[in-house]
Amino acid sequence: MQFQGQFRGTDDYIADKDLMVAVNAAIRLERPLLVKGEPGTGKTELARQVAKSLGLEMIEWNIKSTTKAQQGLYEYDAVSRLRDSQLGDQRVNDVGNYIRRGKLWQAFAADRKVVLLIDEIDKADIEFPNDLLQELDRMEFHVYETGETVAAKVRPIVIITSNNEKELPDAFLRRCFFHYIRFPEAETLAQIVEVHYPGIKQALVRSALSRFYEIRETPGLKKRPSTSEALDWIRLLVADDIDPADLRADASHALPKLHGALLKNEQDVHLFERLAFMARREGR
To answer: What pLDDT, in 10s, does the model give residues 211-240?
Structure first.
């Protein structure tokens, strides 16, 4: 039966029309939704909010550089079985006692639809996406140790995130519905700030966001600050009761106030120090 739920965003997550269309299209097509975008643009949070909006459980698989596709299906603990056989443990007679279910198995075994998040797939080896092609396409896999085939009781909503650190294989991309989360414009980011900090002084938000976008667009910046870093920075500005006028005053003659929330490497700090020095020298 076709799932009838529709994602329309939540009170805690500002989703633009294109993103909502992408989520709902992936649900209708029953294909994984591949979400790319800069780090900190809310890709992981999207999966949580889709689950919240549709009233579904979420199963989260966080990918690391050492993660193998097999771990998402199951892992067979042969070492424990060998040890138990040496100790005469009767558990060894059932190989199923040594099978540990992975996140895909958990999602396939669920009695109702769930949201399965495969987070930061591009961190893994280049062969990782290809190794999951058949399982995500057919929604089933074979357990060689027990001879059983595990098939999804209810097809999960699969959301896959990528920070674009590696190119993903064409065969994998063909099986996904794709959406790129663009960095939000100032108006949208202001709405996001309001969601996180209701009632915040609008004069401070306007000055902070104006300064934030100036920083993001500075030529030569190695790492541009993200949405999450903007929120952290504005939170600190509120906590320190910074005057909006002070943000405008330091725009060209000093490092940004509380710059550690925005600039995350020494090259970018040195860049702004040089720019501030040059601005002060030219202003003499």
So the answer is: 999 999 999 999 999 999 999 999 999 999
Average pLDDT over residues 245-252: 72
3-state secondary structure of 70: helix
* pTM for this entry: 0.88
Determine the Cα–Cα distance for residues 128 and 185; give it in Å rounded to an integer: 34
CA distance 14 to 70: 35
| H or E element at residue 160 | strand 157-162
Rounded Cα gap, residues 261 and 232, in angstroms = 6
Across-strand partners of 159? Answer: 33, 117
What is the distance between the alpha carbons of residues 36 and 44, in angstroms, rounded to a whole number? 10
Structure letter (DSSP) for residue 178:
E
Task: Compute the distance between CA of residue 62 and CA of residue 119 in angstroms, rounded to an integer.
Answer: 5
Q: Which residues of 149-163 are buried (b: 16+ CB within 10 A; e: fewer)?
A: ebebeebbbbbbbbb
DSSP summary character for residue 222: S
Q: How many CA atoms lie within 13 A of 48 on its CB side?
A: 9
Query: Hey, is 240 helix, strand or coil?
Result: coil
Give the three-state DSSP class for 248.
helix
Q: Tokens 């405008």 map to which residue?
A: 248
Task: Compute CA 59 distance to the chain's CA centroid, rounded to the nearest angstrom.
Answer: 14
Which pairs from 208-211 meet CB under 8 Å and 24+ separation? 208/233, 208/234, 208/237, 208/244, 208/247, 210/186, 210/247, 210/248, 211/247, 211/248, 211/251, 211/256
Joined together, the tokens standing for residue 23 give: 């989520």
Cα→Cα distances 229→13, 39, 91, 151, 261, Å = 16, 10, 51, 41, 6
- 119-157 per-position pLDDT tens digit: 999 999 989 999 999 899 999 999 998 899 999 999 999
